[in-house]
From TrEMBL:
It comes from the Archaea. NCBIfam families: DUF2080_fam_acc. This is Transposase.
Amino acid sequence: MSRISSAGIEVSIEEEVEEVLKKEVTPFGNSAKVGCPKRHLGKKAYLVVCKE
């Protein structure tokens, strides 16, 4: 189980975590994206956005 907590917010991920990535959000047309390696295609992912 992975647990993330922050000022009144607590998140628990009760799944086996394969990898943790730290990436920058980049522009993509009228939207934005966070890239990750192709080896993760089709897998479930969670995105946690941090305050600057």
